Amino acid sequence: MSCGAAVPRVDRLEQRYLSGTFAELCRIESPSGRERACAQRVIAELRALDVAVHEDRAGEQTGSDCGNLLARIPGAKGGGEEGRRSVLLCAHLDTVPLQAPVEPVLEDGVWENANDGILGADNKAAIAVILALARHACRAGAPVDLELLFTVGEETALAGARAFQTSSLRSELGFVFDHASPIGELVIASPSHFRLQVDFHGAAAHAGIRPETGRSAILAAARAICALQLGRLDEGTTVNVGTITGGTAMNVVPEDCSFVCEVRALEDARAESLGAEMVDRAHEAANMADCDCDVEVSVQRSFAGYRLSPRAPEVQIAEAALRSCGHEPVQIASGGGSDVNALIAAGFPAVNLANGTERNHEPGERVSVAALEQMLDVGLALLEQAAALGSPPVR
């Protein structure tokens, strides 16, 4: 991915701060809904720099013990100069549920969890980088004004970002570091996502004495699932059944059964069409003669997809920054969502950059010290390139 050596923009002291802060953040458990402790550490780091932090009320809407955090750092010449660009940097505070306690260990230049579980690099690598950028900006100055947004509930359908009021931002565009792939990749397309919950209701009966009087909800669910198109349907479309629950005992015809499934598609119309098809398959299964169950289907659009123009300012800035750091930009389409989906849906331009982490959401998640330092270098380059692009547009 690298296209040649570039002179680092940060010194060894900043690099040590970055790595140490990352490890400390990883030790703080912050699964979705329990972000408060991680948020308090972020607040403490920023207040030590005399940076005020505002917390919104997203926690009340998302069920989290914390809201989104927003901080502002004026550029090197002080805040408010006419024509100077303001840039948003965004990361999320939450992680997926923990399978084991997080004990970060550094082996051969790579951070991993000593236990069999996630490390939390998704997205604490980005939090550490943004805090290091804030520290650099406060001590050495930045060529642009900075807004720093730390969201809650990203892992639960972007809940915090969807609750965030983008009208409170002063920035014209933003950057998110939330894709687990080699540094240099930019996500220019992301899918629309629908969540479906299907609940079947039949009739219970003794499975050995009166099975004929029962109506199996599990059978209906099985018929529905078998009728679905699952897996990767094409390059931009996936469908998955993630959980299924039902029944009370081995010797009882199951009265109730539910499953939860999702559809993701880069084309919004494709996602809607597949969601409607899944609803039809559920009703058809419920009405089969050997099932004869009632069914309820709940459909929720979790987030809308997007496709960025290669000529969009945020894309141009990101590509210029990557090149200046020795990385050849690669535009990709992702099958996952990020806070960028919510920001763009709210009318705020942003782009998601790869952060060099690996195996996110999996035991064995990892990130190298080199990737952290490269991410920090790219972050500083983003600010330089944003300042060099010219007068900011009016929002």
Descriptors:
395 residues, Aminopeptidase, Alpha-Beta Plaits, 2 domains, 9-stranded mixed β-sheet, 10 helices, 19 strands
Helix run count: 10
CATH topology annotation of the largest domain: Aminopeptidase
Count of the separate structural domains: 2
Helix/strand-derived class? alpha+beta
Strand content: 25-35%
The stretches of 5 or more residues where confidence is low (pLDDT under 50) are 1-5
CATH class of the largest domain: Alpha Beta
Gyration radius (Cα, Å) is 24 Å
Rounded average pLDDT: 93
Give, in order, the helices and strands.
Answer: HHEHEEEEHEHEEEEHEEEEHEEHEHEEH
Classified in CATH, the superfamily of the largest domain is Zn peptidases
CATH architecture label name of the largest domain: 3-Layer(aba) Sandwich
